[in-house]
Structures are given as structure tokens and as C-alpha cells.
Specification:
This protein has about 425 residues and is of the alpha/beta class. The protein is about 30% helix and about 25% strand. The chain has two domains: about 10-40 and about 285-415, Lyase, Ornithine Decarboxylase, Chain A, domain 1, CATH 2.40.37.10; about 105-280, TIM Barrel. The chain binds pyridoxal-5'-phosphate. Pyridoxal-5'-phosphate (PLP) binds near residues 66, 243 and 281.
């Protein structure tokens, strides 16, 4: 079978390693399911993106929704990243990871008053608004707090990101941002408010974008708007193009940061602004694997094979939610014939699967598999459905590794319910 190509997850003596750490040993020590991340993958991708745009004034804000483990956030923060948070909970995580609020962007299509007040009181760098009504609310809360809110407005550029409809966010029909048709008037209207400082314009057109054209089209549209707004005397300082850079899961041919920079830098050069990026998936997806144990195999009367593993939609929701492809391969390079099977989890849902009709080396009970590209939107989307305890997470750095979150215990499942019986 074909193995997923990665410099960070390679077979050494037929054993899959993360950097220099043998994954088989990790499963013996920590059990399965188990998330394992490569710290150097994270650092290298951050540097790759940062270097690509070194000619211009820019800053990367890691979108912590992709992987919100404190040690992962800290890894990026130590590289000079800021953090994009989408809720009070993500804000809390960033603070606990040691991030200064001044390095945080507060995003979200439906922020509560509590979340807005928290962000303003703690002094986030920018708070983003996605409707006129929200701007009024932010202004009122800022007035009560006697604060001037540093505000960016997220504009929906109405561009087709050509990605899965559930992760496409920049079409006029999507719930995100302000319709680009109203955006200019809205900036002018908002600039009159007493407790708002309009600092930036923001967009995020979708996720797992593998074609460069939508980025260019949206950036050009936003750049025109940015210039028009600035011409009115509103001193915008930031131009935020969001996240969305796509990665290789299967056979995609994503563009590189360098290619993106070649196309976008000439546009950015015309703007007197700091350029902001909010990547999540690009920085983390291929830096993580989910290790799983084969529990059972079976074949039905029409010859369909099933591999039942101990990971499921509760650890990796993406296949069930978006029909996403994740490469799956044995962590020991087993010399066996390939067969076609559905790789499924233990959760009581027909939609609970990891891979469908997949060519894979014939494996049996006790064999361990690596579900590749699980570093983004894996653990972050996990749940306790079916009474499942979330897996542990391990961060590998060269030949060293450490637990960065322990496996959940039964205690986590009931929180305070027992005391409330
Ligand atoms: C506003 C915003 N910024 C950044 C991101 C990160 O996107 P990605 O992981 O595709 O880079 C998202 C993801 O949904 C988002 O909604």
C-alpha cells in the first residue's frame, strides 16, 4: 500500500516514527487512541509561512480552533505567533498557555456580551465584528467599561473558495461577516461611534482552500474596499486575510506559502497596512496522527470487509462531518496483501467511520494503525458522545516526547453530576 508522504512521520526499520520517536512504543506506553504531534512540523510550517511574507509588515495569528492544546499554542507563541480565538473558552486557553491578550484576536460570528466584555477588559489586540448590530453592542459595552474598542470588521467578499460547502465561509449566502455590498457604508457609520476605533478590515473565505485564485480574487476585492475606506480618512491599520490555506490529505495539489506570497505581496504593497494571517490547518494538520488499535475484522455476505478500530467520530469527526479523506496506514510496515475495507469506529452511528472502501494492508486484531493528517480539527472537535473518554496527546521533539494532555478518566465524563444527584 502507498504510505502518506511526510518528512516528520517516516518508517525507520519498518516502524513508523514521529521524528525520532517510535510510534509503536508510544502506543505501548500510553495506549490508544492516541494523538501524536511533531513539534518540528509546527515550527517549520510557521517559519515557512512567516518567511514567505518577510518582505512585508505582517503577523501570523495561529487559529487555535484547529488545535487548542496549550502546549501547541505555546509552541507557536514562542515562534512569534499571535493567537486567533473564537470564544471565551479559546481565549481562556490562550491565556493559560501564557499568551498576552495584546497578541490575541477575538473572532466569532455570534459573540455573547460576556465574551465581548471579557475581550475588551483584558485588552485583546483586535475584536472583530460581523454585523452592524454587533458593532453597536461592542460600542455600548466599551462605553460602560470606559474603553475604546479596537475594532475590525469582517467583510464577506462573496468569493467561492471552491472547498467543501461546510467550510466555505466567504459566499454572500454564508452566515459570516458583513455583506460586501454594505461594507463601505458600514465602516463610515461605525467610524462615528464614540467608543470604537476602527483599526482593520478582515476576511476569511473558507478552509482547506487548495486553489490560489479565490484568495487572489478576495484579496483584490478587499484591497479596493480598504483603499476606499482609507480615502475617507478612517485610519485603518490592519488588513487580515484570515486562514484557509489548504493541505495535502489525499491527492490535492495545494499551493505553497511562497506561491501565495508571490501573488499577494504586490497587492499588499499598495496598502499601507500590517497584513495579518490566521492559519490553523496549514500549521497543524500534517503535524499530527491519531494512533488506533484494530479491535476486530469481519466480512459480510456480500464480501464487504470491515476493520473495527478503537477510534471513532468522537476523536476524528471530519470523515463523518465532511466525508473527509484521511490516509490510514499500519504503524508497522506489515508485509501482507492489500484488501479493501471500511475502517469504522465503535460509536453507535452508521456515519461513524474513519475511511470507506479503502485499500489497506490486511491487518488483524491488535495491529496498530496511524490515521494521518489528524493535527488539525481532530482533538479540537472531539466529544464524549457514547461515553467515550478523550485520548491523550503527545508532543514529540526529535527523540524526546511528552504528554501534553492525559487520557480522560471516567471522572471527566460525569463532571459534577454525582454531587448533584
Ligand atoms: C475566522 C477564521 N480564521 C481562521 C480560521 C482557520 O482556518 P484554517 O484552519 O483553514 O486555516 C477559521 C476556520 O474556520 C476561521 O473561521
Amino acid at each position: 500500500m502507498k504510505h502518506f508522504k511526510s518528512d516528520y512521520f517516516t518508517y525507520i526499520d519498518d516502524q513508523l516514527h514521529c521524528e525520532k520517536v517510535n510510534l509503536s512504543q508510544l502506543t505501548e506506553e500510553f495506549g490508544t487512541p492516541l494523538f501524536v504531534y511533531s513539534k518540528n512540523f509546527f515550527i517549520d510550517r510557521f517559519k515557512e509561512l512567516d518567511d514567505a511574507f518577510k518582505l512585508i509588515n505582517h503577523k501570523i495569528y495561529f487559529a487555535s480552533k484547529a488545535n487548542f492544546n496549550l502546549s501547541v499554542i505555546k509552541t507557536f507563541y514562542e515562534q512569534g505567533s499571535g493567537v486567533d480565538v473564537n470564544s471565551a473558552g479559546e481565549f481562556y486557553r490562550a491565556i493559560k498557555a501564557g499568551v498576552n491578550p495584546k497578541d490575541i484576536l477575538l473572532t466569532g460570528v455570534g459573540k455573547t456580551d460576556e465574551e465581548i466584555a471579557l475581550g475588551l477588559e483584558k485588552g485583546v489586540f483586535v475584536i472583530k465584528a460581523e454585523s452592524l448590530e454587533e458593532v453597536y453592542v461592542i460600542n455600548d459595552i466599551a462605553e460602560e467599561l470606559n474603553i475604546i474598542a479596537p475594532l475590525a470588521i469582517r467583510v464577506n467578499p462573496d468569493v467561492d473558495a471552491q472547498t467543501h460547502p461546510y467550510i466555505s465561509t466567504g459566499l454572500a449566502e454564508n452566515k459570516f461577516g458583513i455583506d460586501s455590498v454594505y461594507a463601505y457604508d458600514m465602516f463610515v457609520e461605525c467610524s462615528k461611534l464614540s467608543n470604537i476605533e476602527l483599526v482593520g478590515i478582515d476576511m476569511h473565505i473558507g478552509s482547506q482552500i487548495t486553489k490560489i485564485e479565490p484568495f487572489i480574487e478576495a484579496t483584490l476585492k478587499m484591497a479596493e474596499l480598504f483603499k476606499k475606506i482609507k480615502a475617507t480618512g478612517i485610519p485603518l491599520k490592519h488588513f487580515d486575510i484570515g486562514g484557509g490555506i489548504g493541505v495535502l490529505y489525499n491527492d490535492e495539489t495545494p499551493f505553497s506559502p511562497k506561491e501565495l506570497a508571490e501573488k499577494l505581496i504586490p497587492i499588499f504593497m499598495q496598502l499601507d497596512a500590517q497584513i495579518m494571517f490566521e492559519p490553523g490547518r496549514f500549521l497543524t494538520a500534517n503535524g499530527g496522527v491519531l494512533l488506533t488499535n484494530v479491535l476486530y475484522t469481519k466480512t459480510n455476505s456480500v464480501g464487504k470487509n470491515f476493520i473495527v478500530v478503537d477510534s471513532s467520530m468522537t476523536e476524528l469527526l471530519r470523515p463523518s462531518l465532511y466525508k473527509s479523506y484521511h490516509h490510514v496506514q499500519p504503524i508497522e510496515n506489515i508485509d501482507n496483501i492489500d484488501f479493501e475495507a471500511d475502517i469504522v469506529g465503535p460509536v453507535c452511528e452508521t456515519g461513524d467511520y474513519i475511511a470507506k472502501q479503502r485499500e489497506i494492508t490486511m491487518v488483524g486484531r491488535g495491529d496498530k494503525l496511524a490515521i494521518m493528517s489528524a493535527g488539525a480539527y481532530g482533538m479540537a472537535m472531539s466529544s464524549n458522545y457514547n461515553g467515550r473518554r478523550r485520548p491523550a496527546e503527545i508532543l514529540v521533539d526529535g527523540s524526546e516526547y511528552k504528554v501534553i494532555r492525559s487520557r480522560e478518566t471516567f471522572r471527566h465524563l460525569i463532571f459534577d453530576e454525582e454531587a448533584l444527584l
